[in-house]
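Hello, quick one for you while I still have it in my head. A protein chain has come my way and I'm curious about its shape. Can you walk me through what the tokens say about the fold? No rush at all, and the record is pasted right below.
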Amino acid sequence: MALADGGTNGALKVIFRPRETLAPSILSQLSD
């Protein structure tokens, strides 16, 4: 489970992280 979690979820996080992190940061900058 650890290897699958680190490998698969790690890759998915790298793929999906930009949308999850950049959008909120842009919105927070606009609201600031």
